[in-house]
């Protein structure tokens, strides 16, 4: 089992494969008892200017205790980290279909007649916005929908 699979299953990896390090560390610090953070000087290692080192091989070997705590944070115990096999994926904008026709004059209105759609990222907005085109094969109505995907929380808003 890979640490990255657990990070992904908990929403700490973007769709591009980048780790949301700041969010991960803030969440980790919130639940880790202060006495542990202080005893092992963990917060010093997690300063913003050090985050780029977080998953590098030299950092892994020098800060093994942090990674054991991170395993516990992600899986509730080190044991479950090694025993469980988590898989993760991000939600597909607009789902897998089939989709309903929305044409009020179509005899197939509210019936799942649309089997294919065209999804496109909206490149005019920085991230996370998608547009899809739906076309009913019966009445030929073509309509679009927009969505916003929160990749960190794996949520979809249409």
Task: Indicate the topology.
Blueprint: H1 3-9, H2 21-31, H3 34-39, H4 42-45, H5 57-62, H6 64-75, H7 78-83, E1 99-100, E2 112-114, E3 117-121, E4 129-135, E5 142-150, E6 155-157
Antiparallel strand pairs: 1-2, 3-4, 4-5, 5-6
InterPro entries: TnsD_C
Pfam family, one: TnsD
Protein name: Transposon Tn7 transposition protein TnsD C-terminal domain-containing protein
Salient structural properties:
4-stranded antiparallel sheet, 158 residues, 2 domains, Transposon Tn7 transposition protein TnsD C-terminal domain-containing protein, TnsD_C, elongated, two-stranded antiparallel ribbon, alpha+beta
Tell me the number of helical segments per DSSP (H or I, 4 or more residues long).
7
Q: Helix/strand/pairing class, anyone?
A: alpha+beta
Radius of gyration: 22 Å
3D shape: elongated
What is the residue-mean pLDDT, rounded to a whole number?
76
Q: Termini separation (Å)? A: 34 Å
| Helix content percent band | 25-40%
The tally of structural domains comes to: 2
The total beta strand count reads 6
Widest sheet: strand order?
Answer: 3-4-5-6
Let me know the largest β-sheet: 4 strands, antiparallel
- SSE succession: HHHHHHHEEEEEE
Extract low-pLDDT stretches.
151-158
Fraction in beta strands: 15-25%
InterPro entries: TnsD_C (IPR032750)
Organism: Paenibacillus phytorum
Protein name: Transposon Tn7 transposition protein TnsD C-terminal domain-containing protein
Domain Transposon Tn7 transposition protein TnsD C-terminal: 8-146
